[in-house]
Amino acid sequence: MSKALTIFLGPQHPGAPGNVAFKLVLDGERVVDIDLIPGFLHRGFEKMMEYRRWDMDLVMCPRICVEDPDHVELSYTHAMEQIFDIEPPEKAKYIRVIIAEFSRLASHLLWMMHFAGPIAARYATSWAIAAREEILKWFDYVTGHRIYHHYIFPGGVRWNIPGDFEEKTLKVLKVIEPLIKDLDRGFFHHPIFIKRAQGVGRLKASDAIRLGATGPNLRGSGVQYDLRKSLRYDAYGEIDFEIPHGEYGDAYDRALVRLREMYTSIYIIRQALEKMPYEGPYRWKLPPTLPIGEGIGRVESARGEFVAHIISAPSNPLSRSLTPYRIKFRGPTMPHLTTILKHIVANEEITVADLPILIGSLDPCPPDIDR
Amino acid sequence: MVFKAIILGLKYLLRKPYTRMYPYKEPAYTTEHTRQRHILRMDLCIGCRACQLSCPADAIKMYKIEGDYPKNRLKIFPGIDYSRCVYCGLCVEACPTDALIMTDYTMEHLITEDKATTLYSPLDLARPPETPYRITMSKDTWSPLPQAPPRKSHSG
Amino acid sequence: MSFNDELVSLLPPKYKGRLSITGSNTGKRLELYIDPCDVRSILKAVYDAGYNHFIGITVVDYPMENVFELVYLLSSIERNGELLAIRTKIKRDEPFIDSVADIYPLAYYQEIEGYEFFGIIFRGHNGLRKWILLDNWEGPPPLRKDIDTRQIVLEIFYGGKRYERPRQWRSLGGYSGLERGGENE
Predict the structure, then answer these.
(1) Model confidence over A160-201: pLDDT tens digits?
(2) Buried b vs exposed e over B41-77: b needs ≥16 C-beta within 10 Å?
């Protein structure tokens, strides 16, 4: 047998998913062991947030996950509202649901770019980014910015929606839906893609739960678990939808789950537009000092479960504090790229040519690990 | 099946590309809520530094300017460093007299070839831009002012 | 949310009456305070009771009371996403605690983070090292409350008091503040 070879799939590589590096141990063509080398995107958010006031912290939050920024703001907002012990108004809950679902759509379309690019299907990349451009223009119309919105705020949403909100949103959905159907027919049911992705990287349901997987990776293995249905936060309790799931657990099933989630998101947005109350307050005003308490915010982001744990304690026994005492974020990518990847590589036959499909189907977001 | 995908792709061959040739051939895409360059109204500013204390990116610095401003006894006014600003709008939200407002003008403060022109003093901020612009964020973005929060009734 | 009878029956008798329900909205959770020497037995009992989805370990530093507080967050998928938080306190001068990396595989990586940011040593862990902070930071563990990272950065890179832009010596095109009236203090 040949000796084992160690090579680096470094941070500046067209096949690597962002700024992380892997250390691979190869035996011939087969990958025997894989190790993650993070730290290229460490900006020190948890320490920086202890020096700023709690409303300035919200501006720093969406920069933690670049592809899906609204769910980070939503988890921070839930934790802050548990510390202040208030509940947002009804109109704000429905607006938050619509913004979160559009953010999930934009994130899945960006996942198409990371997935179809390394396997040389560049036509799907262009179609997906063209559809995403319409969503970013819609975000500019409602919140003012294209990618980092700073719109979901503790107490509600920051300002009111424009007058023609409903017709503009329905027009955007009417433009996007044929593009997604074209992707469905032209990429996901294409025989070349099916041949490359079926049977690669099988993950069984009991292993997925034990190793800590969340989100579409867990649902692709057959477990029907979605935080939007279990915890029913914001206005998800009043909206009626089905959770898509797979059965076998390979890369093809995980990709199909994400495609069906795109259709589910469009269905949820249409229902929320009908049920939303258009009159009423959209924001409560909160005091600048924090009461003492603790809050845990859990949301279902596009990649999995995002948790923000905020502790507010007095650092000075004589006065109330303006800044939170300790903030901890746990992103969904940490179990996916460490424990699950090691388990799949050790138990299945993965060659170097299968590695882009495998890593792409797990949908990593590298800023989540380093923060 | 491969043939069908090729025919599907032909319809995208003939449409216009999505790229927007900004800034030399087309203007920027702006809406009613786009937040870009600020305007400072120097006769309303009282020099309280609330904008500097609210900036998360540490982009505002106060300058001393001589002149006839009866409301501003300390004679300090804010200047913004546009290479640090993130356009969040917390300074506009903090200003008590509506002296600092935001418009949707997107040209010279960032589109430049010389980094020195991104540091704006208060007199630069007080000069309004030449091309037509819209005021997108000021005190009446939030009027009527939001109410005090109700206490959640204790349940489980 | 009600008390989980299976969980209560699997706990050792010392802790049977100490579960409590706190929190609201998405943070509604069961809480349990334990001593640091019982960490392995409690987490094994909790794993058998159905809470086998590991979320994370939060470490909080209280320098005035001289303790580190660790919060283990776990959840259960069969019971529809219920959250369980297990809290212990260890001394700040001797931060040693047992590792649970063989019961929960994801705890291996969360404990590496606890070591490099706070300096806590997990007994039985064979891979404690600087993982995220490799080549980024030399010095004491940065997230402790007595390390002022902002002052360190200001002294190394900016030489003193504030994040200043360096003075521009090239031609300014008549557009900057230095030529137009406002002056630097």
Answers:
(1) 888 889 999 999 999 999 889 888 888 888 888 888 888 888
(2) ebebbbbbebbbebbbbebbbbbebeeebeebeeebb
Residue whose tokens read 């769910």 = A71
**Where does chain A have alpha helices with state H?**
45-48, 54-60, 69-84, 90-116, 122-142, 165-183, 191-197, 205-211, 216-220, 227-230, 251-275, 333-335, 341-347, 355-362, 367-370
With an 8 Å Cβ cutoff, are A140 and B34 in contact? yes
Of A304, A348, A26, whose CA–CA distance to A201 is shortest?
A: A348
Residue B94 falls within a domain, yes or no? yes
Residue A87 and residue B154 in contact, taking contact as beta carbons nearer than 8 Å: no
Q: Is B1 on the interface with A (CB under 8 A)?
A: yes
Residues C62-87 pLDDT 10s: 988 889 999 999 998 888 888 899 99
Q: Hey, is B125 helix, strand or coil?
A: helix
* Lowest pLDDT segment from A207-211, B130-134, C152-156, C179-183: C179-183
Find the Cα–Cα–Cα–Cα dihedral C103, C109, C111, C115, rounded to 10°. 160
Span C160-169, pLDDT tens digits: 666 666 554 4
Residues A282, A137: Cα–Cα separation, whole Å: 23
Letter string b/e over residues A124-139, b meaning 16 or more CB atoms within 10 A of that residue's CB: bbebbebbbbbbeebb
Predicted confidence at residue A258, as pLDDT, reads 92
What is C5-170's CATH number, 3.30.460.80, 3.40.50.720, 3.40.309.10, 3.30.70.270? 3.30.460.80
| ipTM at complex level | 0.89
Chain A residue closest in CA terms to C133: A39
Is the Cβ pair A78, C23 closer than 8 Å? Answer: no
CA A354 vs CA A29, B76, C6, C147: distances in Å: 10, 63, 44, 45
How many CA atoms, within 13 angstroms, populate the side-chain half-sphere of residue B18? Answer: 13
| A neighbour chains, 3+ CB pairs within 8 Å | B, C
CATH number of the domain bearing residue B32: 3.30.70.3270
The yes-or-no verdict on residue B154 having pLDDT over 80 is: no
The whole-number pLDDT of residue C179 equals 41
Predicted pLDDT at C134: 85
Partner-chain residue, chosen from A60, A159, A186, that has the shortest CB–CB distance to B8: A186
- How buried is B27 (Cβ within 10 angstroms: 0-12 exposed, 13-18 middle, 19+ buried)? exposed
Q: Which domain holds residue B81?
A: 24-141
| A306 neighbors A330 (Cβ within 8 angstroms) | yes
What order do you get walking across the sheet with A30-37 strand by strand? A5-9, A21-27, A30-37
